[in-house]
Amino acid sequence: MTAPLTGFSRLAPPRSWLRAHPTAFDAGLAAAVLVCMVVASFADPHGPHGPTFGTRTPELRSLLLMVAAAGALVFRRSRPMSVLAVTGAVSVAELVAGDPPAPVAMSAVIALYTVASRTDRPTTWRVGLLTMTVLTGSAMLFGSAPWYSQENLGIFAWTGMAAAAGDAVRSRRAFVDAIRERAERAERTRDEEARRRVAEERLRIARDLHDVVAHHIALVNVQAGVAAHVMDKRPDQAKEALSHVREASRSALNELRVTVGLLRQSGDPEAPTEPAPGLAVLDPLLDGFRRAGLPVELARTDQDTELPAAVDLAAYRIVQEALTNVRKHAGAAAKAEVSVVRVGRTVEVTVLDDGCPAGSVRLGPDGAGADGTPAGGHGLIGMRERVTALGGTLTAGPRYGGGFRVQAILPVKARAEGDEDV
């Protein structure tokens, strides 16, 4: 197996050079065709005992016609139709005047092949039939041999094979180009899909960053306000509030480190190893709100439920964002209730509160105020998009008798995992 590979590798540089210089290749082809025509012109097909070689010498007229026909082949790529017309006319002239004629038709066969390989099939049919008819008819009508002689049938066969071979080469070239185009189009499609996935991942990370920053900054703001209010009269309570500020800021930094760490490359040092937050750490989240002054009650029946990572993170973020909105908008005396319940193939996450003082703005189900006025927050919009992406539903709005209600119904299996009927 080594020897053939070595031979092909040695031919690679000359082939590359010939592809880069097509005119040089055509000049070499023209010279080879001229040599073949001149050598064949010394053969006499009508010898006393059959075809003989060296018994006749081509005339000067035949030599000039052979040189003219071979010279025209140098331009066969740039002007294929013109070259076929010239070589065909020269071949007809030799068939009419020569006795026996020199094989000038060999140049017309090469020219016909070139036309067939560079045009479409209908053109090949028309030009091929015309060339076959003219050359074969001239040989039959003006030749000294009978019309059914082998030389005449040979002209017919060679012109037909040239047209068929050229059409086959053109078809194969078009097939290879189509395959290459499909491969390039598939590569572009893969690149576009990769860019789309990157954009979606960046959007998801941006939402996570919004949830983390909004939650913890709200807690820090509340505790800092408490500390400033009681600093002079009750320093112990101010110290406790500042301690809560420190814990909230440390927790925010840790979550930011984990979330932003998702943007690291695989080979970067200090890659994040902590898992994304989920319902398993729901109690510490609620403790943070309780320390900030928001009474929160929890009821859950999902302890034995294993959720996909995306669903688990979405449920955690929904509770976090909903309680942050309660702390910001529901008033200092508000209370909240959180429930996480497994219902069939879904998990229902509900956050209720009982406060909405006059003059405050609460987000409605479409991201505007509960009374229809626009609001500047994007938390509920982000929650809705997160739930919709998983195949769930989110409802949010004022409660009858006061307060606000946020409920998300999430599938136990996310849509991305193939459970379409959830």
Structural summary, described in words:
By secondary structure, the protein is an alpha+beta fold. The protein has helices at residues 2-20, 22-41, 60-72, 80-97, 105-118, 121-142, 150-230, 235-261, 282-291, 309-329, 379-389, and strands spanning 43-44, 52-53, 296-300, 336-343, 346-353, 393-398, 404-411. A five-stranded mixed sheet has the order 3-4-5-7-6, covered by helices on one side. A two-stranded antiparallel ribbon has the order 1-2. The chain is rod-shaped. The two termini are 58 Å apart.
What attributes does this structure have?
single chain, 422 residues, alpha+beta, five-stranded mixed β-sheet, disordered C terminus
The gross shape turns out to be: rod-shaped
Helical fraction = 55-70%
* Strand arrangement across the biggest beta sheet: 3-4-5-7-6
The tally of beta strands, per DSSP, is: 7
Unreliable stretches (pLDDT < 50, length at least 5) are 265-269, 357-361, 363-377, 416-422
Mean pLDDT: 76
Structural class: alpha+beta
- SSE order, one letter for each helix or strand: HHEEHHHHHHHEHEEHEE
Calculate the terminal CA-CA distance, rounded to whole Å: 58 Å
Rg, rounded, reads: 44 Å
- Main sheet summary: 5 strands, mixed
- Count of alpha and pi helical runs: 11
Strand content: 5-15%
